[in-house]
Protein backbone atom coordinates (compact mmCIF):
# COMPACT_ATOMS: atom_id res chain seq x y z
CA UNK A 1 0.00 0.00 0.00
CA UNK A 2 1.35 3.42 -0.90
CA UNK A 3 1.95 5.65 2.08
CA UNK A 4 0.97 9.28 2.08
CA UNK A 5 3.92 11.62 1.52
CA UNK A 6 3.10 15.07 2.91
CA UNK A 7 6.13 16.85 1.45
CA UNK A 8 8.68 15.45 -0.93
CA UNK A 9 11.43 17.62 0.51
CA UNK A 10 10.85 16.68 4.17
CA UNK A 11 10.36 13.03 3.18
CA UNK A 12 13.72 12.91 1.36
CA UNK A 13 15.44 14.93 4.10
CA UNK A 14 14.11 12.59 6.81
CA UNK A 15 15.22 9.51 4.89
CA UNK A 16 18.71 10.89 4.24
CA UNK A 17 19.17 12.28 7.74
CA UNK A 18 18.18 8.97 9.34
CA UNK A 19 20.63 7.06 7.11
CA UNK A 20 23.44 9.56 7.77
CA UNK A 21 22.77 9.48 11.52
CA UNK A 22 22.87 5.66 11.61
CA UNK A 23 26.06 5.69 9.54
CA UNK A 24 27.66 8.15 11.95
CA UNK A 25 26.57 6.07 14.95
CA UNK A 26 28.02 2.85 13.51
CA UNK A 27 31.30 4.49 12.49
CA UNK A 28 31.64 6.10 15.96
CA UNK A 29 31.10 2.79 17.76
CA UNK A 30 33.50 0.94 15.43
CA UNK A 31 36.01 3.82 15.71
CA UNK A 32 35.78 3.76 19.54
CA UNK A 33 36.68 0.08 19.83
CA UNK A 34 39.37 0.30 17.14
CA UNK A 35 40.89 3.27 18.99
CA UNK A 36 40.97 1.43 22.33
CA UNK A 37 42.66 -1.51 20.66
CA UNK A 38 45.31 0.60 18.93
CA UNK A 39 45.87 2.87 21.94
CA UNK A 40 46.45 -0.14 24.24
CA UNK A 41 49.07 -1.83 22.05
CA UNK A 42 52.05 0.56 22.61
CA UNK A 43 51.16 1.13 26.29
CA UNK A 44 50.92 -2.64 26.86
CA UNK A 45 54.41 -3.06 25.35
CA UNK A 46 55.78 -0.43 27.75
CA UNK A 47 53.95 -2.07 30.70
CA UNK A 48 55.43 -5.45 29.75
CA UNK A 49 58.94 -3.96 29.56
CA UNK A 50 58.43 -2.42 33.01
CA UNK A 51 57.21 -5.74 34.40
CA UNK A 52 60.30 -7.44 32.95
CA UNK A 53 62.51 -4.74 34.51
CA UNK A 54 60.81 -5.36 37.87
CA UNK A 55 61.37 -9.11 37.44
CA UNK A 56 65.06 -8.49 36.56
CA UNK A 57 65.59 -6.33 39.62
CA UNK A 58 63.96 -8.91 41.88
CA UNK A 59 65.90 -11.68 40.05
CA UNK A 60 62.70 -13.70 39.65
CA UNK A 61 63.25 -17.20 38.27
CA UNK A 62 66.97 -17.19 39.16
CA UNK A 63 66.61 -19.21 42.35
CA UNK A 64 68.12 -16.21 44.29
CA UNK A 65 65.11 -13.88 44.36
CA UNK A 66 65.50 -10.56 46.21
CA UNK A 67 61.91 -10.16 47.27
CA UNK A 68 62.66 -7.73 50.12
CA UNK A 69 64.22 -5.17 47.73
CA UNK A 70 62.46 -1.73 47.57
CA UNK A 71 61.92 -0.65 44.00
CA UNK A 72 61.50 2.86 42.67
CA UNK A 73 58.39 2.98 40.52
CA UNK A 74 56.41 5.92 39.07
CA UNK A 75 53.91 7.05 41.73
CA UNK A 76 51.71 9.23 39.48
CA UNK A 77 53.09 12.50 40.89
CA UNK A 78 54.98 13.33 37.69
CA UNK A 79 52.67 15.32 35.33
CA UNK A 80 54.51 13.82 32.32
CA UNK A 81 54.00 10.28 33.63
CA UNK A 82 50.68 10.59 35.48
CA UNK A 83 50.20 6.84 35.97
CA UNK A 84 51.03 5.03 39.19
CA UNK A 85 52.63 1.58 39.03
CA UNK A 86 52.33 -1.09 41.69
CA UNK A 87 53.38 -4.73 41.75
CA UNK A 88 52.83 -7.96 43.64
CA UNK A 89 54.88 -11.17 43.72
CA UNK A 90 52.83 -14.13 44.83
CA UNK A 91 53.17 -17.89 44.89
CA UNK A 92 51.22 -20.18 42.59
CA UNK A 93 48.24 -20.19 45.01
CA UNK A 94 48.10 -16.39 44.91
CA UNK A 95 49.57 -15.77 48.37
CA UNK A 96 51.47 -12.45 48.43
CA UNK A 97 55.21 -12.81 48.94
CA UNK A 98 56.32 -9.21 48.22
CA UNK A 99 55.24 -6.00 46.49
CA UNK A 100 53.62 -2.60 46.87
CA UNK A 101 50.05 -3.80 46.57
CA UNK A 102 47.98 -6.95 46.87
CA UNK A 103 47.20 -7.86 43.30
CA UNK A 104 45.78 -11.30 43.21
CA UNK A 105 45.08 -12.77 39.86
CA UNK A 106 46.11 -16.40 40.42
CA UNK A 107 47.54 -17.81 37.24
CA UNK A 108 47.78 -21.46 36.53
CA UNK A 109 51.19 -22.70 35.41
CA UNK A 110 49.60 -23.87 32.19
CA UNK A 111 48.24 -20.44 31.28
CA UNK A 112 51.63 -18.89 31.80
CA UNK A 113 52.90 -20.77 28.76
CA UNK A 114 51.14 -18.31 26.49
CA UNK A 115 53.37 -15.56 27.93
CA UNK A 116 52.15 -12.31 29.39
CA UNK A 117 48.50 -11.96 30.31
CA UNK A 118 46.90 -8.50 30.26
CA UNK A 119 43.74 -7.64 32.15
CA UNK A 120 41.62 -4.58 32.97
CA UNK A 121 40.59 -3.79 36.52
CA UNK A 122 39.89 -1.08 39.05
CA UNK A 123 41.78 0.04 42.12
CA UNK A 124 40.78 2.79 44.53
CA UNK A 125 38.17 4.06 42.07
CA UNK A 126 40.69 4.27 39.19
CA UNK A 127 40.83 2.11 36.10
CA UNK A 128 43.89 -0.08 35.84
CA UNK A 129 45.70 -2.28 33.34
CA UNK A 130 47.62 -5.24 34.72
CA UNK A 131 50.19 -7.56 33.18
CA UNK A 132 50.83 -10.93 34.82
CA UNK A 133 53.93 -13.07 34.30
CA UNK A 134 55.00 -16.45 35.68
CA UNK A 135 58.54 -17.40 36.75
CA UNK A 136 59.34 -21.01 37.63
CA UNK A 137 62.59 -21.36 39.60
CA UNK A 138 65.43 -23.31 37.94
CA UNK A 139 64.78 -26.30 40.17
CA UNK A 140 61.18 -26.36 39.12
CA UNK A 141 60.07 -26.50 42.75
CA UNK A 142 58.37 -23.12 43.03
CA UNK A 143 56.36 -20.99 40.70
CA UNK A 144 56.26 -17.25 41.25
CA UNK A 145 53.70 -14.90 39.81
CA UNK A 146 54.42 -11.26 39.08
CA UNK A 147 51.52 -8.83 38.60
CA UNK A 148 52.38 -5.27 37.54
CA UNK A 149 49.52 -2.82 37.35
CA UNK A 150 49.31 0.79 36.24
CA UNK A 151 46.55 3.38 36.21
CA UNK A 152 45.29 4.35 32.76
CA UNK A 153 45.36 8.17 32.73
CA UNK A 154 47.70 8.35 29.76
CA UNK A 155 45.79 5.71 27.82
CA UNK A 156 42.47 7.51 28.49
CA UNK A 157 43.96 10.82 27.33
CA UNK A 158 45.20 9.21 24.13
CA UNK A 159 41.82 7.53 23.46
CA UNK A 160 39.98 10.82 24.06
CA UNK A 161 42.34 12.60 21.71
CA UNK A 162 41.97 10.04 18.92
CA UNK A 163 38.18 9.92 19.31
CA UNK A 164 37.91 13.70 19.19
CA UNK A 165 39.93 13.62 16.00
CA UNK A 166 37.60 11.03 14.44
CA UNK A 167 34.17 12.06 15.70
CA UNK A 168 34.30 15.84 15.33
CA UNK A 169 35.44 15.86 11.66
CA UNK A 170 32.80 13.18 10.95
CA UNK A 171 30.12 15.29 12.57
CA UNK A 172 31.21 18.29 10.54
CA UNK A 173 31.18 16.16 7.40
CA UNK A 174 27.63 15.05 8.13
CA UNK A 175 26.49 18.60 8.76
CA UNK A 176 28.05 19.60 5.46
CA UNK A 177 26.31 16.68 3.71
CA UNK A 178 22.95 17.72 5.22
CA UNK A 179 23.45 21.29 4.07
CA UNK A 180 24.41 20.05 0.57
CA UNK A 181 21.38 17.74 0.40
CA UNK A 182 19.03 20.47 1.63
CA UNK A 183 20.38 22.93 -0.90
CA UNK A 184 20.29 20.31 -3.68
CA UNK A 185 16.67 19.43 -2.91
CA UNK A 186 15.69 23.08 -2.83
CA UNK A 187 17.33 23.60 -6.22
CA UNK A 188 15.99 20.32 -7.62
CA UNK A 189 12.41 21.08 -6.63
CA UNK A 190 12.57 24.59 -8.01
CA UNK A 191 11.08 23.64 -11.42
CA UNK A 192 8.02 22.23 -9.62
CA UNK A 193 7.69 25.42 -7.63
CA UNK A 194 7.98 27.38 -10.87
CA UNK A 195 5.19 25.32 -12.46
CA UNK A 196 3.04 25.85 -9.39
CA UNK A 197 3.40 29.63 -9.52
CA UNK A 198 2.92 29.58 -13.30
CA UNK A 199 -0.38 27.70 -12.93
CA UNK A 200 -1.47 29.85 -9.98
CA UNK A 201 -0.77 33.06 -11.92
CA UNK A 202 -2.84 31.98 -14.93
CA UNK A 203 -5.90 33.88 -16.05
CA UNK A 204 -9.23 32.20 -15.20
CA UNK A 205 -9.96 30.75 -18.62
CA UNK A 206 -6.34 30.04 -19.65
CA UNK A 207 -6.14 26.35 -20.51
CA UNK A 208 -3.04 26.54 -22.70
CA UNK A 209 -0.38 23.82 -22.38
CA UNK A 210 2.36 23.91 -19.77
CA UNK A 211 5.86 23.99 -21.25
CA UNK A 212 7.17 20.49 -20.51
CA UNK A 213 10.53 21.21 -22.19
CA UNK A 214 11.54 23.27 -19.14
CA UNK A 215 10.67 20.48 -16.69
CA UNK A 216 13.15 17.85 -15.47
CA UNK A 217 12.82 14.47 -17.21
CA UNK A 218 11.26 12.86 -14.11
CA UNK A 219 8.48 15.44 -13.97
CA UNK A 220 7.69 15.42 -17.70
CA UNK A 221 5.18 12.53 -17.57
CA UNK A 222 3.26 14.47 -14.93
CA UNK A 223 3.30 17.65 -17.02
CA UNK A 224 2.23 15.60 -20.08
CA UNK A 225 -0.69 14.14 -18.12
CA UNK A 226 -1.71 17.62 -16.91
CA UNK A 227 -1.46 18.89 -20.49
CA UNK A 228 -3.69 16.04 -21.69
CA UNK A 229 -6.19 16.91 -19.01
CA UNK A 230 -6.07 20.59 -19.99
CA UNK A 231 -6.62 19.64 -23.62
CA UNK A 232 -9.67 17.51 -22.76
CA UNK A 233 -10.98 20.24 -20.49
CA UNK A 234 -10.57 22.75 -23.29
CA UNK A 235 -12.55 20.53 -25.64
CA UNK A 236 -15.32 19.99 -23.11
CA UNK A 237 -15.46 23.68 -22.29
CA UNK A 238 -15.54 24.81 -25.89
CA UNK A 239 -18.22 22.18 -26.65
CA UNK A 240 -20.25 23.50 -23.76
CA UNK A 241 -19.79 27.10 -24.82
CA UNK A 242 -20.84 26.19 -28.36
CA UNK A 243 -23.82 24.30 -27.03
CA UNK A 244 -24.99 27.13 -24.79
CA UNK A 245 -24.58 29.61 -27.66
CA UNK A 246 -26.45 27.29 -30.07
CA UNK A 247 -29.20 26.62 -27.54
CA UNK A 248 -29.64 30.32 -26.84
CA UNK A 249 -29.78 31.01 -30.57
CA UNK A 250 -32.25 28.17 -31.20
CA UNK A 251 -34.50 29.34 -28.38
CA UNK A 252 -34.37 32.99 -29.37
CA UNK A 253 -35.97 32.44 -32.79
CA UNK A 254 -39.19 30.70 -31.65
CA UNK A 255 -39.52 32.97 -28.64
CA UNK A 256 -39.15 36.09 -30.81
CA UNK A 257 -41.79 34.60 -33.17
CA UNK A 258 -44.06 33.92 -30.21
CA UNK A 259 -43.74 37.47 -28.97
CA UNK A 260 -44.59 38.91 -32.42
CA UNK A 261 -47.57 36.59 -32.82
CA UNK A 262 -48.94 37.46 -29.37
CA UNK A 263 -48.53 41.18 -30.15
CA UNK A 264 -50.38 40.64 -33.44
CA UNK A 265 -53.16 38.72 -31.69
CA UNK A 266 -53.55 41.50 -29.15
CA UNK A 267 -53.90 44.10 -31.91
CA UNK A 268 -56.33 41.96 -33.96
CA UNK A 269 -60.01 42.69 -33.41
CA UNK A 270 -61.37 40.09 -35.83
CA UNK A 271 -61.98 36.97 -33.69
CA UNK A 272 -61.48 34.56 -36.63
CA UNK A 273 -58.05 35.95 -37.49
CA UNK A 274 -57.19 36.17 -33.82
CA UNK A 275 -58.07 32.47 -33.52
CA UNK A 276 -55.72 31.63 -36.42
CA UNK A 277 -52.87 33.65 -34.87
CA UNK A 278 -53.40 31.92 -31.55
CA UNK A 279 -53.11 28.57 -33.34
CA UNK A 280 -49.67 29.69 -34.61
CA UNK A 281 -48.85 30.75 -31.06
CA UNK A 282 -49.75 27.27 -29.84
CA UNK A 283 -47.57 25.64 -32.54
CA UNK A 284 -44.61 27.89 -31.65
CA UNK A 285 -45.08 27.20 -27.96
CA UNK A 286 -45.17 23.43 -28.64
CA UNK A 287 -41.96 23.67 -30.68
CA UNK A 288 -40.23 25.70 -27.96
CA UNK A 289 -41.30 23.28 -25.29
CA UNK A 290 -40.13 20.34 -27.46
CA UNK A 291 -36.76 22.08 -27.95
CA UNK A 292 -36.39 22.63 -24.21
CA UNK A 293 -37.34 19.00 -23.54
CA UNK A 294 -34.70 17.81 -26.02
CA UNK A 295 -32.08 20.17 -24.54
CA UNK A 296 -32.72 18.83 -21.05
CA UNK A 297 -32.53 15.26 -22.32
CA UNK A 298 -29.21 16.00 -24.01
CA UNK A 299 -27.79 17.69 -20.90
CA UNK A 300 -28.81 14.67 -18.80
CA UNK A 301 -26.95 12.27 -21.06
CA UNK A 302 -23.85 14.35 -21.67
CA UNK A 303 -20.51 13.44 -20.13
CA UNK A 304 -20.50 15.09 -16.71
CA UNK A 305 -24.25 14.50 -16.34
CA UNK A 306 -25.40 11.35 -14.54
CA UNK A 307 -22.61 8.82 -14.12
CA UNK A 308 -22.57 5.11 -14.91
CA UNK A 309 -23.08 4.41 -11.19
CA UNK A 310 -26.85 4.68 -11.89
CA UNK A 311 -26.57 1.64 -14.22
CA UNK A 312 -28.48 -1.52 -13.38
CA UNK A 313 -28.85 -4.84 -15.17
CA UNK A 314 -31.98 -4.57 -17.31
CA UNK A 315 -33.70 -6.35 -20.16
CA UNK A 316 -33.28 -4.30 -23.34
CA UNK A 317 -36.00 -6.27 -25.12
CA UNK A 318 -38.56 -5.38 -22.47
CA UNK A 319 -37.69 -1.66 -22.65
CA UNK A 320 -37.86 -1.75 -26.47
CA UNK A 321 -41.24 -3.52 -26.39
CA UNK A 322 -42.77 -1.05 -23.93
CA UNK A 323 -41.40 1.92 -25.84
CA UNK A 324 -42.73 0.59 -29.16
CA UNK A 325 -46.17 0.09 -27.58
CA UNK A 326 -46.10 3.69 -26.43
CA UNK A 327 -45.56 4.88 -30.01
CA UNK A 328 -48.30 2.69 -31.58
CA UNK A 329 -51.06 5.38 -31.37
CA UNK A 330 -48.77 7.92 -33.12
CA UNK A 331 -47.98 5.37 -35.84
CA UNK A 332 -51.67 4.56 -36.30
CA UNK A 333 -52.40 8.27 -36.68
CA UNK A 334 -50.05 8.28 -39.67
CA UNK A 335 -51.19 4.90 -40.91
CA UNK A 336 -47.74 3.42 -40.31
CA UNK A 337 -47.28 -0.24 -39.55
CA UNK A 338 -45.13 -0.19 -36.41
CA UNK A 339 -43.87 -3.71 -35.60
CA UNK A 340 -41.67 -5.33 -32.96
CA UNK A 341 -39.45 -8.42 -33.38
CA UNK A 342 -38.36 -10.36 -30.31
CA UNK A 343 -34.90 -11.82 -29.70
CA UNK A 344 -36.02 -15.05 -27.93
CA UNK A 345 -32.83 -15.03 -25.83
CA UNK A 346 -31.23 -13.12 -22.96
CA UNK A 347 -30.84 -9.45 -23.78
CA UNK A 348 -29.68 -8.19 -20.39
CA UNK A 349 -27.42 -5.17 -20.47
CA UNK A 350 -26.14 -2.74 -17.85
CA UNK A 351 -27.79 0.61 -18.27
CA UNK A 352 -30.09 3.40 -17.29
CA UNK A 353 -33.70 2.61 -18.25
CA UNK A 354 -34.75 6.28 -18.55
CA UNK A 355 -31.91 7.14 -20.92
CA UNK A 356 -32.53 4.03 -23.02
CA UNK A 357 -36.23 4.97 -23.23
CA UNK A 358 -35.25 8.44 -24.44
CA UNK A 359 -32.91 6.94 -27.05
CA UNK A 360 -35.58 4.59 -28.40
CA UNK A 361 -38.21 7.32 -28.28
CA UNK A 362 -36.07 9.55 -30.50
CA UNK A 363 -35.30 6.76 -32.99
CA UNK A 364 -38.96 5.65 -33.29
CA UNK A 365 -40.15 9.29 -33.41
CA UNK A 366 -37.78 9.94 -36.32
CA UNK A 367 -38.80 6.76 -38.14
CA UNK A 368 -42.51 7.61 -37.83
CA UNK A 369 -42.05 11.29 -38.54
CA UNK A 370 -39.88 11.00 -41.65
CA UNK A 371 -41.59 7.93 -43.17
CA UNK A 372 -44.52 8.80 -45.43
CA UNK A 373 -48.05 7.55 -44.69
CA UNK A 374 -48.54 3.83 -45.17
CA UNK A 375 -44.92 3.05 -44.44
CA UNK A 376 -43.45 0.42 -42.23
CA UNK A 377 -41.30 0.77 -39.10
CA UNK A 378 -39.77 -2.24 -37.31
CA UNK A 379 -38.06 -2.28 -33.94
CA UNK A 380 -36.09 -5.42 -33.14
CA UNK A 381 -33.65 -6.68 -30.56
CA UNK A 382 -31.10 -9.28 -31.68
CA UNK A 383 -28.45 -11.27 -29.93
CA UNK A 384 -25.02 -10.91 -31.52
CA UNK A 385 -22.33 -12.96 -29.77
CA UNK A 386 -21.22 -10.99 -26.74
CA UNK A 387 -23.50 -8.08 -27.73
CA UNK A 388 -27.16 -7.16 -28.01
CA UNK A 389 -28.22 -5.18 -31.09
CA UNK A 390 -31.14 -2.81 -31.15
CA UNK A 391 -32.48 -2.10 -34.68
CA UNK A 392 -34.92 0.61 -35.69
CA UNK A 393 -35.69 0.28 -39.38
CA UNK A 394 -38.06 2.16 -41.65
CA UNK A 395 -38.85 2.19 -45.35
CA UNK A 396 -39.02 5.97 -45.65
CA UNK A 397 -36.87 8.23 -47.83
CA UNK A 398 -33.68 7.45 -45.87
CA UNK A 399 -30.83 9.85 -45.25
CA UNK A 400 -28.48 10.75 -48.13
CA UNK A 401 -25.02 9.27 -47.60
CA UNK A 402 -23.31 12.67 -47.39
CA UNK A 403 -25.42 13.50 -44.31
CA UNK A 404 -24.74 10.24 -42.48
CA UNK A 405 -21.90 11.53 -40.33
CA UNK A 406 -23.56 14.89 -39.77
CA UNK A 407 -27.03 13.88 -38.56
CA UNK A 408 -25.62 12.93 -35.16
CA UNK A 409 -24.35 16.50 -34.66
CA UNK A 410 -26.36 18.82 -32.48
CA UNK A 411 -28.93 21.00 -34.27
CA UNK A 412 -28.14 19.36 -37.62
CA UNK A 413 -31.21 18.75 -39.76
CA UNK A 414 -31.58 17.52 -43.33
CA UNK A 415 -33.62 20.14 -45.06
CA UNK A 416 -36.55 19.30 -47.29
CA UNK A 417 -38.25 16.71 -45.12
CA UNK A 418 -41.17 19.02 -44.52
CA UNK A 419 -41.12 18.12 -40.82
CA UNK A 420 -40.32 20.33 -37.89
CA UNK A 421 -37.79 19.40 -35.24
CA UNK A 422 -34.96 20.75 -33.15
CA UNK A 423 -32.15 18.65 -34.66
CA UNK A 424 -31.22 17.21 -31.26
CA UNK A 425 -32.84 13.74 -31.42
CA UNK A 426 -29.91 11.85 -32.93
CA UNK A 427 -27.39 13.81 -30.83
CA UNK A 428 -29.24 12.49 -27.77
CA UNK A 429 -29.14 8.96 -29.24
CA UNK A 430 -25.37 9.29 -29.79
CA UNK A 431 -24.74 10.51 -26.22
CA UNK A 432 -26.84 7.69 -24.70
CA UNK A 433 -24.95 5.14 -26.82
CA UNK A 434 -21.59 6.59 -25.76
CA UNK A 435 -22.60 6.53 -22.09
CA UNK A 436 -23.55 2.84 -22.44
CA UNK A 437 -20.33 1.91 -24.25
CA UNK A 438 -22.48 1.00 -27.23
CA UNK A 439 -21.64 1.30 -30.91
CA UNK A 440 -24.07 3.37 -32.98
CA UNK A 441 -24.40 2.81 -36.73
CA UNK A 442 -26.63 4.22 -39.43
CA UNK A 443 -27.10 1.66 -42.18
CA UNK A 444 -28.88 2.15 -45.46
CA UNK A 445 -28.57 1.13 -49.05
CA UNK A 446 -28.30 -2.56 -49.91
CA UNK A 447 -31.09 -1.85 -52.36
CA UNK A 448 -33.53 -1.24 -49.51
CA UNK A 449 -35.34 2.02 -48.97
CA UNK A 450 -35.28 3.89 -45.67
CA UNK A 451 -32.72 3.71 -43.00
CA UNK A 452 -31.71 1.39 -40.23
CA UNK A 453 -30.23 2.63 -36.96
CA UNK A 454 -28.28 -0.07 -35.10
CA UNK A 455 -27.09 0.29 -31.50
CA UNK A 456 -24.81 -2.51 -30.32
CA UNK A 457 -24.64 -2.90 -26.53
CA UNK A 458 -22.23 -5.16 -24.62
CA UNK A 459 -24.06 -7.90 -22.71
CA UNK A 460 -24.34 -7.32 -18.94
CA UNK A 461 -22.52 -10.54 -18.08
CA UNK A 462 -19.54 -9.57 -20.27
CA UNK A 463 -19.34 -6.12 -18.68
CA UNK A 464 -19.55 -7.56 -15.17
CA UNK A 465 -16.79 -10.03 -16.06
CA UNK A 466 -14.58 -7.18 -17.23
CA UNK A 467 -15.20 -4.68 -14.44
CA UNK A 468 -16.10 -6.91 -11.50
CA UNK A 469 -19.44 -6.70 -9.69
CA UNK A 470 -20.83 -3.25 -9.11
CA UNK A 471 -21.96 -2.33 -5.66
N1 LIG B 1 -35.57 7.73 -39.92
C1 LIG B 1 -35.24 8.79 -40.62
N2 LIG B 1 -35.54 8.89 -41.94
C2 LIG B 1 -35.16 9.95 -42.64
N3 LIG B 1 -34.48 11.00 -42.13
C3 LIG B 1 -34.16 10.97 -40.84
C4 LIG B 1 -34.51 9.87 -40.03
N4 LIG B 1 -34.02 10.11 -38.78
C5 LIG B 1 -33.43 11.31 -38.84
N5 LIG B 1 -33.50 11.83 -40.04
C6 LIG B 1 -32.90 13.10 -40.46
O1 LIG B 1 -31.91 13.45 -39.56
C7 LIG B 1 -32.11 14.75 -39.03
C8 LIG B 1 -31.68 14.80 -37.62
O2 LIG B 1 -32.55 14.06 -36.82
P1 LIG B 1 -32.73 14.39 -35.31
O3 LIG B 1 -33.63 13.41 -34.69
O4 LIG B 1 -31.41 14.60 -34.76
O5 LIG B 1 -33.42 15.81 -35.34
P2 LIG B 1 -34.92 16.17 -35.60
O6 LIG B 1 -35.72 14.96 -35.77
O7 LIG B 1 -34.90 17.12 -36.75
O8 LIG B 1 -35.30 16.97 -34.31
P3 LIG B 1 -35.75 16.37 -32.90
O9 LIG B 1 -35.59 14.90 -32.98
O10 LIG B 1 -34.85 16.99 -31.93
O11 LIG B 1 -37.11 16.81 -32.74
C9 LIG B 1 -33.56 15.04 -39.22
O12 LIG B 1 -33.77 16.41 -39.45
C10 LIG B 1 -33.93 14.22 -40.44
O13 LIG B 1 -33.75 14.99 -41.61
MG1 LIG C 1 -35.72 13.52 -34.27
Automatic annotation (TrEMBL):
Entry's EC annotation: 2.7.13.3
Primary subcellular site in the record, as a coarse category: membrane
Gene3D superfamilies: 1.10.287.130, Histidine kinase-like ATPase, C-terminal domain (3.30.565.10)
Keywords noted in UniProt: Kinase, Membrane, Phosphoprotein, Transferase, Transmembrane, Transmembrane helix, Two-component regulatory system
CDD domains, alphabetized: HATPase (cd00075), HisKA (cd00082)
Residue ranges annotated for the HAMP domain, each copy included: 186-238
Compartment list: Membrane
GO molecular function, one term: phosphorelay sensor kinase activity
Domain of life: Bacteria
SMART domains: HATPase_c, HisKA
GO CC annotation terms, alphabetical: plasma membrane
Transmembrane feature ranges: 20-40, 162-185
InterPro entries: 2CSK_N, HAMP_dom, HATPase_C_sf, HATPase_dom, His_kinase_dom, HisK_dim/P_dom, HisK_dim/P_sf, Sig_transdc_His_kin-like_C
Protein name as catalogued: histidine kinase
Taxonomy of the source species: Bacteria, Pseudomonadati, Pseudomonadota, Betaproteobacteria, Nitrosomonadales
